[in-house]
Amino acid sequence: MRFAVLTLLLLLAPQVYAHKPSDSYLQLTPTDEGFTGEWRIALRDLGPAIGLDRDGDRKITWGEVRTRHSEIANYALGRLAIAAGGSPCHIRAGAQLVDELSDGAYTVLPLAVTCERNVAPWSLDYSLFFDMDATHRGLISFRGSDTPQTFALSPDNNRAVLSAGAASPVQQFVTMAREGVWHIWIGFDHILFLLALLLPAGLRLTRAPDEKTGWTPLLKDVLTLVTAFTVAHSITLSLAALKLVSLPPRLIETTIALSIVVAGLRMRYAVSRPAAWIAFSFGLIHGFGFANVLADLQLPTGSLALSLFAFNIGVELGQCAIVLLALPLIRYAQRHTFYQRTFMPVAAVLIATIGVAWSIERGAGLYFAL
After folding, report:
1. What is the torsion angle, in degrees rounded to the nearest 10, for the CA atoms of residue 88, residue 89, residue 90 and residue 93?
2. What pTM value is reported for the model?
3. What is the CA radius of gyration of the chain?
4. Which residue did the predictor score with more confidence, 16 or 329?
């Protein structure tokens, strides 16, 4: 059993390191003939799809992108379809640009959509990267009114129906709350930080490694940690989304990775000390990371307050689901001496190592270099 647990940890480590959440951002605005729009697609996702990184150095340069514009456009447009009145619309891509978002460089495809029968509602079918990455999300913003419609498309839900009227506040709330849940669930850096805080919970109140712990010390520590983390990231998420405070995206992402290193080292060397200050201090930085997701959507000011509230609720629900899933497992494992004497040191080293790797990767900006 012990060997199996350690083996599982070793196998999971490189998988966590290798994955980075994948999103693209499509904005559409109706015109008399159809739509105009912009489609932002991450270069790190296009790299393996069409072989952008020709020299294999894990850096996609502007020269590599510039010579492949037609291939990029053909690849993307072959995975997007818009129809009006039962007839397909014609989609053309203009000259591409490059934009730097919170998680790296994106190619920007200006779109001109012409519909023979330009009548609402319009249907949109999206399949970009779904055959390569089941976690990819197509985030669609349709600005047909003062209150835009937002859709998060996935392999299981790849169609959106666009209407000319204002979006329902309930629909917008559900969409953004769902996106908040999804973001925390595929945000392995946030999950790893949270788990690094939860795994030692309750142990600091025991007198010996083999002393049995009950639910009370565990719940006390978990409530303190989750509250500190929630309050902190809610503060900075709101401040950043409202553009009252701003930090460079690379600094934010690198510091989030460093927070995992600190939490991992604490697991190894300072279990006896409370971790609420770590949860709150680095929770402030994680809040800026959550805010970057909203910023990348480029939502109009009129819908920002509702989107911010719904997204934050989604993050909390996703976080609570992770905690509720982890707590019984932690409580059961803490009853065995193997947990504190063997599992905790090994898990601490792996978590800190992943954090160091992410810190180097994000600090150096390995995905793209102009």
Report:
1. -120
2. 0.70
3. 23
4. 329
